[in-house]
Amino acid sequence: MALLHVGAVCLALWSFVLCSTGIVQCRVLWRFADRTAAASASVTNCTYPDLISATADELESGLKGGCFSSVDLVNQCRLSRSAQAYIARIQEVNSTVHAVTELNPQAVEIAEQLDQERKNGSLRGPLHGLPVLIKGNIATQDELQTTAGSYALLNAQPPSDSTIAAKLRQAGLIILGKADLSQWANFRSFNSSNGWSAYGGQVGSSSGSGVASDLGLAFAALGTETSGSIVSPSEVNNIVGIKPTVGLASRYLVVPISERQDTVGPMARTVKDAAQLLQVIAGPDPKDNYTLASPFGSNLPDYVAACKLTGLQGKRIGIPRNVIAALQEDYMGPYIAAFNAAVSVIAAAGATIIDNTNFTAFDTFNNSTVPDSVLFADFISDLATYLSELKTNPNNLHSLEDVRAFTQHFPLEDYPARDTAVWDAALAAGINNTSPQFWPLYQQNRYFGDEGGVLGALKKYNLDAVILPTDFAYPVPAVVGAPIVTVPLGAYPNGTAVQRSPPWNLVEAAPGIPFGISFMGPLWSEESLIGMAYAFEQRTLVRDKLKRYIEPHTQLKDVV
Ligand SMILES: *[C@@H]1O[C@H](CO)[C@@H](O)[C@H](O)[C@H]1NC(C)=O
Ligand SMILES: *[C@@H]1O[C@H](CO)[C@@H](O)[C@H](O)[C@H]1NC(C)=O
Ligand SMILES: *[C@@H]1O[C@H](CO)[C@@H](O)[C@H](O)[C@H]1NC(C)=O
Ligand SMILES: *[C@@H]1O[C@H](CO)[C@@H](O)[C@H](O)[C@H]1NC(C)=O
Ligand SMILES: *[C@@H]1O[C@H](CO)[C@@H](O)[C@H](O)[C@H]1NC(C)=O
Ligand SMILES: *[C@@H]1O[C@H](CO)[C@@H](O)[C@H](O)[C@H]1NC(C)=O
Ligand SMILES: *[C@@H]1O[C@H](CO)[C@@H](O)[C@H](O)[C@H]1NC(C)=O
Ligand SMILES: *[C@@H]1O[C@H](CO)[C@@H](O)[C@H](O)[C@H]1NC(C)=O
Ligand SMILES: *[C@@H]1O[C@H](CO)[C@@H](O)[C@H](O)[C@H]1NC(C)=O
Ligand SMILES: *[C@@H]1O[C@H](CO)[C@@H](O)[C@H](O)[C@H]1NC(C)=O
User: Fold this and answer.
1) Quick one: pLDDT at residue 74?
2) CB 124 within 8 A of CB 167
3) Which of 205, 227, 234, 518 is an active site residue?
4) Is CB count within 10 Å lower at the N or C end of the chain?
5) Domain regions of the chain by residue span
6) Is 193 assigned a catalytic role?
7) 56-69+79-558: what fold?
8) For residues 151 and 177, is the Cβ–Cβ distance under 8 A?
């Protein structure tokens, strides 16, 4: 009876609405209904974590206790009444926030396989059976697109999964779908908007991975950063972001900007969840030789064990005040005040604060064209390499010139309203990363991050980390590939004048817009940074104090 009832409700309610999207077919219902009925009969004492805040540990404990299955986490059609976990949550809010460009049609099948393995007593790892979303520039060899937000790459096929995607699967994670991004990771135009792509539209506030993770549209998400693209969307979405050292996690088959700066990292609701995901994606990969520079080889630090309340005890932490002085705008008063209050929390947690550990080359760096020149040169070379690796390249694109010509002639790319000025500048400079002019430029650029920047300050003052408001944190570590962890810090208060960025007028600051604090350290110092970030997070728990303007309502208890 229960079977028929569930099925009838599903077909009646969903066949025209959700099932006709072709995302998840309702026929899967019949395959799962009996097993779940049996499972729920034997389980009497379950709690169902609120999916807006559910941690990996809470979800794994429910899976282990048989309270719900991985299929319950993803399936939308099996269920009675209202609706169903993560896919249903995506359907609730996506028409407003546009965070998820597409769902994986195989998600339920994969979840079923993982549930079966769990039943058999075989777990692939501590995150077995949890759904994640990944940014649309991380390649997967499945039915999902890897477009970097551009029609230029629609239906392009990679030769295999990216190493990162393969690692997620090996660890038992379910790739639930792809998250929208600023097109080409925000490396096309000087007058486009953050979070916009031709393929996926405009994300509500910032890139899809950040929105998705905050709204509990998956257990967590992966982003990529060249300069700011993990930590900024994490900050404005009130979540934790880890930008790993370049080379800690493989970039093989991730649509590139720069081999010297690109890195893939977790965006999650807690430091510990982010650490768990970092543990999965880190490690050497012969297909990305920057990973071979890692001091760890296959013996990674235990990033999860690093999550200790004592993480700040005995640490020496510097504040490069001159960076704040150079970049602070009038409206940022409450942000800087919150940062200064956080400094007291950090000191009270046992750290020694050393103020004015300035980045000596910051003012020159801030006005220099060298950092862009290095990215331009890497992009020309690295994009060509990526395109040459594709198994299917439907638009026959082999170079940045090709991609620019495609973009300027394909109406949905919104050219010229959104220009291609970044590429125009790169091609006009005419330098790629094998040109003789490149090496001196790169050395100049490194100086801004090394002796004249974050690495220099760390050494000179014998520091474990430096801290900054996240808005100001990322440009300097970017040029030397150094790591950053951002943690929620607060939000602009009522009365803040709304700040918009031209030309598309996206809101930069306004009452309720969140901001974060960043911990930055030497190369490969993630273990220590995670400890500090965790100790700060647990003492402040800012995330739970802020209010969203939109939230999905589907919960596991509606589903099971
Ligand atoms: C059910 O769980 C609650 C909280 O976890 C616990 O206090 C209670 O004793 C449990 N009841 C049974 C019957 O196991
Ligand atoms: C989310 O919205 C965007 C923009 O409308 C759309 O392109 C995308 O297909 C939607 N995703 C899902 C999973 O429906
Ligand atoms: C689970 O175990 C059964 C019996 O040992 C086996 O036939 C099946 O293939 C296993 N399933 C998975 C998903 O490992
Ligand atoms: C990686 O390989 C490329 C070419 O094969 C080489 O130019 C580069 O120096 C290598 N990088 C590292 C970090 O080993
Ligand atoms: C660091 O920068 C701050 C702010 O610009 C300035 O007041 C201070 O004198 C500088 N300290 C050093 C040691 O350069
Ligand atoms: C840093 O750059 C910003 C943006 O270009 C500029 O507004 C600001 O004046 C610069 N600050 C310094 C100290 O040069
Ligand atoms: C940097 O450029 C800004 C204008 O864009 C100017 O106000 C500032 O003085 C310059 N800073 C330095 C250190 O040259
Ligand atoms: C890089 O520049 C060299 C000339 O300096 C040229 O031979 C080579 O084709 C260029 N590579 C790419 C990918 O543009
Ligand atoms: C972007 O720049 C292009 C070329 O300069 C211009 O035609 C277009 O109007 C600009 N778009 C906006 C929104 O300012
Ligand atoms: C800010 O304004 C909102 C809406 O008017 C109100 O609900 C909230 O309580 C206010 N918050 C504070 C801290 O005053």
Assistant:
1) 87
2) no
3) 205
4) N
5) 56-69+79-558
6) no
7) Amidase signature (AS) enzymes (3.90.1300)
8) no
CA 153 to ligand 4 centroid distance, Å: 26
70, 135, 150, 528: the catalytic one is 135
**Looking up tokens 């000179």, which residue turns up?**
460
For ligand 2, atom 11: residue with the closest CA? 101
Between the two ends of the chain, the Cα-to-Cα distance in Å is: 16
Predicted model pTM:
0.90
**Three-class DSSP category at 492:** coil
Helix (H, G, I), strand (E, B) or coil at 94: helix
Position in ligand 3 atom list of the atom nearest CA 122: 14
pLDDT at 79: 39
pLDDT at 549: 80
For 112, the token pair is 């079923």
Find out whether the beta carbon of 117 lies less than 6 Å from any atom of ligand 3.
yes
Confidence at residue 505, expressed as pLDDT on a 0 to 100 scale: 82
Judged by phi (left if over 0) then psi (alpha if -120 to 50, else beta), residue 265 lies in beta
% of the chain surpassing 90 pLDDT = 79
Candidate from 190, 324, 327 with most ligand 6 atoms within 8 A of CB, to mutate: 327
Q: Which ligand neighbours the alpha carbon of 290 most closely?
A: 4
User: Ligand 5: does its nearest atom lie under 6 Å from the Cβ of 356?
Assistant: yes
Q: Please provide residue 376's backbone torsions phi and psi, each rounded to the nearest 5 degrees.
A: -60, -45
C-beta of residue 469 within 8 angstroms of C-beta of residue 365? no
Q: Which of 186, 365, 150 is closest to 258 using CA atoms? A: 186
- CA pair distance 361, 187, nearest whole angstrom: 25
Q: What letter does residue 109 receive in the DSSP assignment?
A: H
Q: Which residue CA neighbors atom 11 of ligand 5 most closely? A: 356
Distance, in Å, from the CA atom of 128 to the CA atom of 171, rounded to the nearest integer, reads: 6
Handedness of CA 251, 256, 262, 267 (dihedral sign): negative
Q: What is the pLDDT of residues 161-218, one digit of tens each?
A: 999 999 999 999 999 999 998 888 889 998 888 888 888 888 754 589 999 999 999 9
Active site residue 229: yes
Pocket lining: 385 vs ligand 8, CB cutoff 6 Å: no
Q: Quick check: CB of 116 below 6 Å from ligand 3? A: yes
In the residue annotation, 287 being an active-site residue is answered as no
Check residue 555 and give its pLDDT.
Answer: 86
